């Protein structure tokens, strides 16, 4: 069989691919920001010495981390309408699912980040009369975040790749855009190849950028 | 829905001469089979590529790096689609290969890139003196890796290797996309047939739990067995 890419014009990109690309980026961005905020709180809860804070957090994180993402996507798609008592679209369900799912992964990174900051930083903050909240938000968390920046970015690249799994509930993401275009022009083989190439270019450049940041942080230390 | 939970569903006949429970266990077996086969491919290729990436020959290192970058930077589901849709249409002889084998290859190669990264990091984390000492003793390159570097590196990378082995079980769920009858595919189909999604999903999720927990325990046992006192991770 011969490959023929001639049908792949800017009109095709505009009408099929662009919509999916925007959704994939939006999903990544929302899940990243929401997941980081939620993940930071989960990490703080987990490091707390009050068991009623640390236990639920570690239960949540460990549970989500040991279930395949596809199952989590399906679970949320099943449960959210039951809880809200009204149907929601696949796209909205994806936003909620990825935020809660990523929070579990980001929280583990954040926890390692907080532990990587010397205990004396906290002690120094307390000696200056800062409250726990001030210590965390002005002293510990900024350092923890910077130490873990490369890991956060690596996790975000994985998140971007994982957004393609919304295939399971049929949301219109980048992969879906390629698939529909491939079906319309009866050229699925070429479309999957272009999809793979595009994902590769995006993820590869992001991971190179991450390496750059990693080296920059290393020098400062 | 008469009651919230109706576990009787698992003893109902699917219409194909088996109960849903039998189907569930069958699907579990497929999940484990896909995972184990992919894991063997991933381990062999991942270790080889990881070693290659630490050699002195620039060209071979480049090939190893390219391997890792390609299989790491394309989402698994697209790699599975490529193996399932693209490869058989480009190479006619592969047209009758069952989708199970294609998924195993896809998952194996995908994971091999990640394992190669860990093997490389493990070898590079060793003190330079280890390699130099081996060279000073007149070890060949092969002997240096076989007797000095790899035994140390493997003990270091056992924990990340464990989480990669757990990931392979989780990632095997993506095989539903090409209709391999594993756990996720079972959840989707049985859920639709019975409209008892919650019971079906709970059972499926439990089996994933059990599988990953087992891998975790197994590798903790292995870690205790192989640790050398005086080295990384060993006592004193």
Blueprint of the fold:
The complex is a heterodimer of chains A (221) and B (236).
Chain A: H1 10-47, H2 51-65, H3 69-84, H4 90-116, H5 119-127, H6 132-147, H7 149-162, H8 174-184, H9 188-220
Helix pairs in contact in A: 1-2, 1-4, 1-8, 2-4, 3-4, 4-6, 4-7, 5-6, 7-9, 8-9
Chain B: H1 20-52, H2 58-72, H3 76-90, H4 99-124, H5 128-136, H6 141-171, H7 183-194, H8 197-226
Task: Record keyword descriptors for this entry.
heterodimer, A: 221 residues, mainly alpha, MetI-like fold, B: 236 residues
Mean pLDDT of chain A: 91
How many domains of chain A? 1
Oligomer: heterodimer
The fraction of residues in strands of chain A falls at under 5%
Determine the most extensive contact between two protein chains. A-B, 30 and 38 residues
- pLDDT < 50 runs, ≥5 residues of chain A: none
- The CATH architecture classification of chain A is Orthogonal Bundle
Number of distinct beta strands of chain A: 0
The shape of chain B, in one word, is elongated
User: Could you name the CATH homologous superfamily of chain A?
Assistant: MetI-like
**Number of β-strand runs of chain B:** 0
Low-confidence region ranges of chain B = none
Find the CATH topology of chain A: MetI-like fold
Mind explaining what this structure looks like?
The complex is a heterodimer of chains A (221) and B (236). Chain A has 221 residues and is mainly alpha-helical. Chain A has a single domain, classed as MetI-like fold (Orthogonal Bundle), CATH 1.10.3720. Chain A is 81% helix and 0% strand. Chain A is globular, with a radius of gyration of 21 Å. The termini of chain A are far apart. The model of chain A has no long low-confidence stretch (mean pLDDT 91). Chain B is mainly α. Chain B has a single domain (7-226), classed as MetI-like (MetI-like fold), CATH 1.10.3720. Chain B has eight helices and no strands. Chain B has helices spanning 20-52, 58-72, 76-90, 99-124, 128-136, 141-171, 183-194, 197-226. The longest helix of chain B has 33 residues, at 20-52. Chain B starts with 19 loop residues before the first helix and ends in a 10-residue tail after the last helix. The model of chain B has no long low-confidence stretch (mean pLDDT 89). At the A-B interface, helix 3, helix 7 and helix 9 of A face helix 2, helix 3, helix 6, helix 7 and helix 8 of B.
């Amino acid at each position: 069989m011969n490959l023929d890419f001639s049908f792949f014009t800017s009109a095709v990109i505009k009408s099929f691919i662009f919509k999916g690309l925007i959704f994939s980026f939006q999903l990544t961005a929302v899940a990243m920001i929401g997941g980081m905020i939620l993940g930071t709180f989960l990490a703080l809860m987990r490091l707390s010495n009050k068991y009623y804070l640390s236990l639920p957090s570690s239960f949540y994180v460990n549970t989500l981390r040991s279930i395949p993402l596809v199952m989590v996507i399906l679970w949320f798609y099943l449960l959210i309408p039951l809880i809200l008592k009204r149907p929601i679209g696949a796209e909205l369900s994806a936003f909620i699912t990825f935020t809660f799912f990523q929070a579990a992964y980001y929280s583990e990174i954040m926890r390692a980040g907080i532990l990587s900051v010397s205990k004396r930083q906290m002690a120094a903050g307390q000696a200056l009369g800062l409250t726990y909240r001030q210590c965390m938000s002005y002293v510990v968390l900024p350092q923890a975040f910077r130490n873990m920046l490369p890991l956060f970015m690596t996790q975000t690249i994985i998140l971007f790749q994982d957004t393609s799994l919304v295939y399971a509930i049929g949301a219109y993401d980048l992969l879906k855009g390629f698939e529909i275009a491939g079906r319309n022009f009866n050229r699925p083989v070429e479309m999957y190849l272009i999809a793979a190439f595009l994902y590769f270019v995006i993820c590869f450049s992001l991971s190179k950028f991450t390496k750059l940041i990693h080296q920059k942080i290393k020098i400062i230390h | 829905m008469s009651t919230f939970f109706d576990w009787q569903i698992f003893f109902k006949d699917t219409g194909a001469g088996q109960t849903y429970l039998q189907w569930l266990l069958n699907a579990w077996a497929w999940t484990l089979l896909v995972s184990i086969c992919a894991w063997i491919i991933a381990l062999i290729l991942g270790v080889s590529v990881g070693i290659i990436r630490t050699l002195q020959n620039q060209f071979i290192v480049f090939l190893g790096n390219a391997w890792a970058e390609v299989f790491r930077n394309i989402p698994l589901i697209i790699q599975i689609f490529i193996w399932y849709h693209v490869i058989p249409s480009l190479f006619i002889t592969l047209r009758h290969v069952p989708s199970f084998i294609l998924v195993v290859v896809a998952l194996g190669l995908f994971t091999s890139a990640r394992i190669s990264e860990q093997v490389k990091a493990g070898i590079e984390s060793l003190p330079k003196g280890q390699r130099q000492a081996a060279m000073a003793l007149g070890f060949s390159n092969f002997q240096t890796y076989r007797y000095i570097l790899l035994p140390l590196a493997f003990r270091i990378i056992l924990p990340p290797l464990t989480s990669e082995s757990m990931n392979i079980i989780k990632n095997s769920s993506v095989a539903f996309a090409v209709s391999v009858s594993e756990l996720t595919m079972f959840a989707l189909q049985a859920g639709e047939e019975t409209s008892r999604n919650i019971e079906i999903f709970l059972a499926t999720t439990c089996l994933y739990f059990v599988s990953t927990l087992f891998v975790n325990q197994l590798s903790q046992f292995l870690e205790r067995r192989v640790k050398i006192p005086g080295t990384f991770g060993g006592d004193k």
